[in-house]
Design goal:
Elements lengths: L16 H19 L11 E6 L5 H12 L3 E5 L13 H8 L5 E6 L4 H8 L4 E6 L5 H15 L6 E5 L6 H9 L6 E5 L8 H9 L4 E4 L2 H7 L2 E4 L10 H7 L7 H4 L7 E3 L20 H6 L1 H12 L4
Helix pairs in contact: 1-12, 2-12, 3-4, 5-6, 5-12
The structure holds N-carbamoyl-L-aspartate (NCD).
Length: 309
Amino acid sequence: MPRLAKKDVLRADQFSKDEIALIMELATTYETALSEGRVLDVMKGLVLSTLFYEPSTRTRLSFETAMLRLGGKVISVAEAKSSSASKGESLHDTIKTVEGYADVIVLRHPQIGSAEEAAKATDKPVLNAGDGAGQHPTQSLLDFYTITKEKGTVDGQTVVLAGDLKNGRTVHSLALLLADYDVRFVFVAPDGLRMPREIVDRLKANGTDVKETEDLTDGLAEGDVLYMTRIQRERFADPAEYDRLKDSYVLTLALLEKAKPGISVMHPLPRVNEISEDMDDYSGAAYFRQAANGVPIRMALLALVCGRA
Ligand code: NCD
C-alpha cells in the first residue's frame, strides 16, 4: 500500500522526509515522461474537482493540467460567485455534494483551517491549495523541487524569505517543510509583517539557525536562494497600512550586485512590483521555471493520494 494513498494534503509539516523524497522522485519521473512526450493514463477513470474561492492562475491550472496529463478528468469551480457558496451554502455541504461527483478535491478558500474542515467532511482526499493566510503545502513541495533542481540539494543552503512573511501562506509552508533539513534561514520583513512567532519558535526549537532582519541587502549578501513574496493586499484590514508597506522591497538587477554570486531568485507569483522586470534576464531568476514545476509535483501528489502510484 503506497504511503500516501487516501491521505489529505493539508499542511507542509505533515510530511516525513521519506514521503517528501517519494514525492520528489515521482515528480522527476513524470517530468521526464512529459519531456519525452509520453502519454500517461495513470489517473484514467478518475475525476478531480477543483474548488477555488480565491483568485488563482498557476495553482488551479497546474492542478488541472496535472490531472489531464495523467489521463484523468477535471470539474472546476473557479469563481465562488458562480457557486452555491454565494447563496449561503456551508463549506461542509459543498464538500458533501462534491464528494458524490469526484474522486479527489483541491480546495482554495480564504479561511485559515478551511482545508482541515473540508477533509473532515469527506473520506475522499482533500488537497489544500491555500487556506487564507494559513498554509499552501503543494506550493512548498514545488518550491522544494525547484531548490533541488536549481541548487542540486536543499541541504547546506541559506534560504532567504523576503516580503510579507506574516500573511504569506507560501512562506509559512516552505519554512515548515524545510525545518528538518540542513537549511539556514534569513527572514526579511518590515516590522509589521514578520514571520509568525510560532513558526520561528518551532524552527529554533528544532535547532534551525534563523536570522530576522528588515534589510533586504543583509539577505542578499548571505542567501543561496532568495524567495521573494508580494505584500498580500487582500489580508490588510487598513488600506493605508498596505500603502505604507507595499513598496518595502523591490529587487532590481542593480541591487543584485550586492548578492552572493549565483543566487537563485524564486517567487511563487503573482509578482506586483517586488521583482523588477529587468531581473527576468538574470540566469538565476527561477520563478517561471518554478511555476512550471507545479505540474510534475501535482501529478505526483494526485497519483499518490489516489493510490495510483
Ligand atoms: C501564492 C498564493 O496564492 O498564496 N500564489 C500561488 O499559489 N502561486 C502567492 C501569492 O498570492 O502571493
